[in-house]
Amino acid sequence: MGYRKLGRNTGHRKAMLRNLVTSLLLNDRIVTTETRAKEVKSLADKMITLARKGDLPARRRALAYIYDEFVVKKLFHDLGPRYSERPGGYTRIVKVGHRRGDGAPLVVLELV
Q1: Among 8, 34, 83, 105, which residue's CB has the most CB atoms within a 10 Å radius?
Q2: Is the backbone of residue 98 left (phi > 0), alpha (psi -120 to 50) or beta?
Q3: How far is 31 from 67, CA to CA, in rounded Å?
Q4: What sections of 1-112 are H helices per DSSP?
Q5: How far apart are CA 34 and CA 108, in angstroms?
C-alpha cells in the first residue's frame, strides 16, 4: 500500500496532512498520533528538500502545498540553509505515551 488512509476520505486526509506539515514547519514540533506522524514525516522531508534546492519552481511547488506564505518564507530562508549539508532525515519521531481518551499512541514529531 502506498499510504495510510487514516480513516478519512481523500479530501479530508489531504487537508489534514497539509495542516500538520504547515504546523510542523511553523512551530518546529507537534504532538500527534504515531500513524499521522509517520505520514507527515515523509511530506515534511520532501518540503525541506524543495527548500534546499531554493529555485523558483521549488518555491512554487511548496506554495502549492503549504497553506501559509509566511511558512514558505521561513522554509526557504531559514530551514533550507540550515539543512543544506544534511543528506536527509530532517525530522524525528519520539514516543511520549498514550492518549487518555482512546489510548492512541502519541508522539512528538520535531525537526532535527
Answers
A1: 83
A2: beta
A3: 19
A4: 10-27, 34-53, 56-65, 69-74, 80-82
A5: 9
* pTM assigned to the model: 0.93
Cα distances from 30 to residues 2, 23, 81, in angstroms, run 24, 7, 22
Average pLDDT by consecutive 10-residue portion of the chain (112 residues)?
Answer: 89 97 97 97 96 96 95 96 94 96 96 94
Burial of 68 (0-12, 13-18, 19+ CB in 10 A): middle
The Cα 29–Cα 111 span in angstroms is 6
Three-state DSSP state, 98: strand
Sign of CA dihedral 72, 52, 95, 16: positive
Residue 96's SS3 state is strand
User: And the C-alpha cell for 21?
Assistant: 506539515
